[in-house]
Design brief:
This protein has 682 residues and is of the alpha+beta class. It is globular, with a radius of gyration of 25 Å.
């Protein structure tokens, strides 16, 4: 009886594939262009050779992350001498996700959680002794680095929430001993700001009406200094104090649409505008490490461009712009501001870390992150602007497979199946540059379209706030409008489009499956919320100050109208509508979108005999960090998309080895996946 039941579900699943391909070679039958060789998944999603390059603040040493026995560790060596580099961490499990230098150049700092729970601890590595110290060794603490200063060497200012899980108190922590000293107890604020003596001077507090205020501390008393209206909350922030600690530099969208770079003396309310654009927000700002004044800023519409703040920096920035393109970013500066660590990110080759000498204008390579990528022909990302139905401009990125666009000019010679790849947030954005998922999909024969829908950041507060109360409404319409644009351009066909994304992108996928159930051929949801009510009920306690931002954007569960909106905009409410194949992936330790979000929609689908494949990782959180888990997930997703859209599929091989993957439900809908998983555990 059980086998008959599975056969029935498989029959239903096959019927749901109307418009999907059952022949994985169908993509190459529409034209006579030979597809490029398959890029193996471990090249795309395995560990890079080296990553996250940095120079020490004094410029004498370099650091980077690189694998040791398959685990990403921190390496340190003499500058430009890779033979001298040695690992200084020995995690051996999930690896170190990020690192940075203490300003004394004697310690390297890094953040690490446990199996994706995001209870970050801050660690210090003393390079001379090799000693590793947990600077925040308290049960359940979630640490946040607030600041460090060259005028207070050997000390960092760290926020810790061990007293009250909702609020981070500020502590001075000695890097050598780990001893902490309370600098400021949190009075119910979201963020502290310290001056260059590491004295906490300002704080940001969220108010019940969705606005925020900047508080100033005088003689131990906090008083309101600035009010930030609700529409400006996500586009206005303090960058840091000026040289004499009497004012701050800010990104400020008050009284304008786009965020400008401004200077504002303490106690005053009228800033001096340093730089602004009518088209996009000022985003990245480079500060001089000694004078603490801005040197350059970045405007990023389709690609980022550096601009000098003053004429004396013009030649320096012009030389940098002439030597880079793509998604270039300055990641760090030495204390004398001579050397900048630059991440050069073209879309169709491996990203490269380089060192820019601001005195000579030379840009020298530090290392290539994934040199094996240069053995493959990658697709070029194209920036496009798509009109939404109400006239908003949607800055988007299109990646066409070589079989559909041999010239790689962004114009499709043949239609190809399309994957709408939706970014998370929603308060984030897609940007130009190398994207492993886009390259993976295009290599398999799919076109990829990444849309900066309303609520995306960087395009002004009107564009961002246009997404408020528009989850599963205008935001979804932006995605639909982008799909229609692609069809009209001959990029794809209406019945050959999938939707895929993580976090908010996962929610958007579930919206596509439930609110417009025949629009997409299939969907891949990665850690996406299915029930907006339970999502808000389960947000981490340390996000308490951010709660009103969610209420303003989605709906306030404390009001009858808001609660009704949350329920109506939840994919779980409309689960009966699902008609197309769905793959769901979840990390069991995710503190943002808890496992219950995936569990409940899978349970609802099971109760209705609606096929779904559910993949769970017990040692992951909000996304999949361990390379063996990443490889296993993309092997499943590749098989799933191959069944749905007919793209090329690399055999699973040993991609399940050492992964924690569990197929909780629906393995029978992907027989090769189920068989490979069974073989890997035998």
């Amino acid at each position: 009886m059980k086998q008959l039941f599975y056969l029935f579900l498989l029959t239903v699943f096959t019927a749901m594939l109307t418009g999907c391909a059952s022949d994985n070679n169908r993509l190459t039958s529409t034209n006579d262009i030979t597809p490029p060789p398959l890029i193996e998944r471990d090249v795309l999603f395995g560990n890079p050779t080296r990553y996250q390059g940095r120079l020490s603040p004094d410029g004498t040493k370099m650091s980077f992350r690189a694998p040791v026995n398959g685990v990403m560790e921190i390496w340190v060596g003499d500058r430009d001498n890779f033979n001298s580099a040695e690992p200084v961490t020995h995690d051996g499990n999930r690896g170190v996700p990020s690192h940075f230098w203490a300003l004394d150049s004697e310690h390297v700092l890094y953040m690490q959680d446990q199996d994706g729970d995001e209870n970050w601890h801050l660690y210090s590595v003393h390079l001379n002794s090799g000693k590793i110290t947990d600077l925040t060794p308290y049960a359940g603490v979630q640490a946040q680095l607030i600041s460090q200063s060259r005028t207070v060497p050997g000390v960092v200012l760290v926020g810790m929430n061990d007293r009250d899980a909702r609020w981070h108190d500020a502590y001075r922590v000695d890097l050598a001993t780990g001893k902490r000293t309370l600098e400021a107890e949190n009075p119910g604020v979201a963020e502290f700001y310290a001056d260059h003596n590491l004295n906490v001077r300002l704080a940001m507090r969220a108010l019940d009406n969705g606005s925020t205020e900047i508080l100033s501390q005088h003689n131990g008393q906090w008083k309101t200094w600035l009010s930030i209206p609700q529409p400006d909350v996500l586009t206005t922030k303090i960058l840091g104090f000026d040289a004499d600690n009497t004012g701050v530099y800010m990104l400020d969208s008050r009284n304008r649409d786009t965020a400008a770079l401004v200077h504002l003396p303490l106690g005053q309310d009228t800033p001096t505008v340093i730089a602004q654009s009518d088209k996009v927000d000022v985003t990245g700002v480079l500060m001089h490490p000694q004078t603490h004044a801005p040197v350059a800023y970045v405007l990023d519409y389709i690609q980022p461009v550096f601009h000098p703040v003053e004429r004396r920096y013009a030649a320096m920035i012009q030389q940098l712009n002439e030597k880079v393109s793509g998604g270039t970013e300055v990641l760090a500066q030495t204390l004398d501001n001579r050397y900048w660590t630059v991440y050069v990110d073209e879309s169709d080759r491996s990203p490269v870390y380089k060192i820019y000498d601001t005195q000579t204008g030379t840009l020298d390579q530090l290392f290539v992150t994934q040199p094996q990528l240069d053995n493959h022909q990658l697709a070029q990302m194209q920036g496009v602007v798509i009109p939404a139905r109400d006239g908003l401009e949607l800055v988007s990125y299109l990646t066409l497979p070589l079989t559909a666009d041999p010239d790689q000019d962004g114009k499709a010679e043949h239609p190809a199946p399309l994957v709408m790849l939706v970014h998370g947030g929603p308060w984030g954005r897609d940007s130009f540059g190398y994207d492993a998922i886009a390259q993976w999909l295009s290599n398999r024969g799919y076109a990829v379209l990444q849309v900066n829908f309303r609520s995306s950041t960087g395009f002004g507060k009107a564009f961002l706030n246009a997404g408020n109360h528009e989850w599963a409404r205008a935001i979804h319409n932006d995605i639909l409008d982008a799909k229609d644009w692609a069809i009209a351009k001959g990029i794809t066909r209406a019945d050959e489009v999938a939707i895929m994304g993580g976090s908010f992108g996962g929610y958007a996928t579930l919206v596509g499956m439930t609110f417009t159930p025949t629009t997409f051929s299939c969907g891949v949801d990665i850690v996406g919320p299915s029930n907006l009510v339970t999502l808000l009920e389960s947000i981490p306690p340390y996000w308490e100050s951010f709660r009103t931002v969610f209420h303003n954007a989605i709906g306030d569960p404390n009001t009858e109208e808001g609660l009704a909106m949350l329920k109506e905009r939840s994919p779980l409410t409309h689960v009966d509508n699902i008609q197309r194949p769905l793959l769901i992936a979840q990390g069991a330790n995710d503190p943002r979108v808890k496992q219950a979000e995936s569990d409940q929609i899978v349970t609802a689908m099971k109760e209705r005999d609606i096929p779904v494949t559910y993949v769970l990782y017990p040692d992951e959180g909000h996304g999949f960090q361990k390379p063996e888990n990443r490889l296993s997930f993309f092997a499943v997703a590749e098989s799933f998309l191959g069944e749905c859209l007919g793209g090329r599929v690399q055999p699973i091989g040993d991609d399940f080895d050492d992964a924690s993957i569990q197929i909780v439900h629906g393995g029978e809908y992907l027989p090769e996946v189920k068989q490979s998983l069974q073989a890997s555990v035998q």
